[in-house]
Amino acid sequence: MEAATRGDVDLDRVSAGTRSKKLLLRALAGERTERPPIWLMRQAGRYLPEYHRVREAAGGMVGLCNSPEHAVEVTLQPIRRFPLDAAILFADLPQIAAALGQSLEYLVGDGPVLTPPIRSASDITEFLSASGLHEELAPIYETVRQLTRALPEEVALIGYAGAPWTVATYMVEGRGGGSSEHAVVKQWALSDPASFQPLIDLLTAAIIEFLDRQIQAGAEAIQLFESWAGILPDPFFQRWCVKPVAAIVAALKAKHPGVPIIAFPRGAGLAYDGFVQATGVDCVGLDSTVPLEWAAQKVQGELGRCVQGNLDPQLLVAGGPALEVETRRILHTLGSGPFVFNLGHGIVKTTPPEHVAALAQQVRSWAAPLAY
């Protein structure tokens, strides 16, 4: 069957999504919606003053993520403030690493720190186990259950996890963030892939179970964050990013065929379209460097898939005419759909909340051109 042309609706891909009237789910199912749905990566977080109050009350980041009461509250905060079409579960990528056996703490100015770092095949067998996975992650499942009752009925709930390669970078380097060159994890993965493979296999199996439980608890869509896709040479990108994500998608689709999956392979560059084809994701998140015309032609047009993105977060900080002009350009280039408006990475902490309000209003007031 020929790929859907841009602006056409692939009826096979829409069938699951049309069972729901939620705008996000319709777009993810491949529908050309009357306007693009909007949500923002890290929409709950440090740029909101009310978030800081809840985090302090929870005793810090670990307490916040492991307290359903507090995690529900910070997930709802941006929904109360802004007319967004989806909420994303508030949790943190390294939590699954902690559930597998590492200790997780957050240091001021240093972000998440995982100990002991996993640096060898013997470390995998000595320190890691999936035996207590669901017990450790139970607070997250309860957060999802509570959110299904607390969210407005028109707002979709997105569950999520880090993809195996990205979580592995945390586990091996012992910390998150972007300051590292990831030399330790790359040396292991590139020079001795056979001994690195069990870590990816363990994470792939654990992430499938983690996301399956989120869906059972009420998550209506899933996002996989592959934040460090762009640091690997192509053959290793295929092995450590593409194949594990494809395995996760296949396993979840077998159990939950109507639940759409978004993947965000940040920095994948020219590999974006191949990633979409090989993994079978319903929607791909575009980072801020992806040319819009290319995404419209290759991913929306030739592949008939939904795209998500890709406003530079610094434009959201800047606000004003610069934000308005770039938002309009993205809408006009990708808005014929299927399309979800989002950022090219997460909101930064210096973002004025009023700029988020202005962005949401601009996107919501935009109407897709009529198809002829």
Count helical runs: 17
Write the H/E string, N to C. HHHHHEHEEHHEHHHEHEHEHEHHEH
Largest sheet: 7 strands, parallel
The amount of helix comes to 40-55%
What spatial order of strands do you see in the largest sheet? Answer: 1-4-5-6-7-8-9
End-to-end separation: 22 Å
Would you count the extended β strands for me? 9
List keywords for this structure.
372 residues; alpha/beta; two-stranded antiparallel ribbon; 9 strands
Can you offer a commentary on this structure?
There is one protein chain. By secondary structure, the protein is of the alpha/beta class. Helix content is 51%, strand content 12%. The protein contains 17 helices and nine strands. Strands 1-4-5-6-7-8-9 form a seven-stranded parallel sheet. It has a two-stranded antiparallel sheet with strand order 2-3. α9 (164-173) crosses α11 and α16 runs parallel beside α17 (353-364). The longest helix is centred in the middle third of the chain and has 25 residues, at 193-217. The relative contact order is 0.15.
Which SSEs are present, and which pair or pack?
Layout: H1 11-17, H2 23-28, H3 49-58, H4 61-65, H5 68-81, E1 86-88, H6 95-99, E2 103-107, E3 111-115, H7 121-127, H8 133-150, E4 156-162, H9 164-173, H10 183-191, H11 193-217, E5 221-226, H12 234-255, E6 261-265, H13 272-279, E7 283-285, H14 292-302, E8 306-311, H15 313-318, H16 320-334, E9 339-343, H17 353-364
Parallel strand pairs: 1-4, 4-5, 5-6, 6-7, 7-8, 8-9
Antiparallel strand pairs: 2-3
Helix pairs in contact: 3-5, 5-8, 8-11, 9-11, 10-11, 11-12, 16-17
